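Final report, closing paragraph on structural work. Over the funding period we assembled a curated collection of sequence-structure pairs, and we close with a single example.
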Amino acid sequence: MNDLSKACLDEAKNSMQSSLNFLEKELSKIRAGKANPGMLDGVKVDYYGTPTEISQVANINTPDARSIVVQPWEKNMVSPINKAIMDANLGFTPRQEGDMLRIVIPPLTEERRRELSKAAKTEIENAKVNVRNVRRNVMDKVKKLKDKSVPEDEVKQVEKELQDITDKHIAECDKIYAAKEKEIMSI
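Its predicted structure, as stored:
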């Protein structure tokens, strides 16, 4: 197999793996009843006029499975952090305790668990679409290899390997979903 064929397959593997990495990051934001500092990822607080991640202005801990403690490094940041968490509409309310915030994670209802499972399924489907788009884009490049004096049987081999890589990544998406669904639905 020549370098052009290998480059196409490497590009496919890397892009598909990036889709899976993004999927796992997105699924980590879907809470499954246990407190996790990652639940506050993406929440931005107004830090002297600059939107800043909460993790950049405060220490975030989980003392137990049902609560998150946010301790700002500057005492005057308690109110802006509280407001940012409320504005993010994450489904929980922070409670101010002195110079820190405590967030008690409410237990999930059956209905909420189903909603979270649906949201996870949507993320999985998006990842599968991304993997298939990568396959289509790389397949277009592979078909153009015929014009670059690559033998037709090698192009067929690359197409087959590309499909195998795609199938492997789609199966990995399904495996990730099964694990996340089990995590969400377990009480």
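The chain is about 55% helix and 15% strand. The domain at 3-29+109-185 is CATH 1.10.132.20 (Topoisomerase I; Chain A, domain 4). We thank the funder for supporting this effort.
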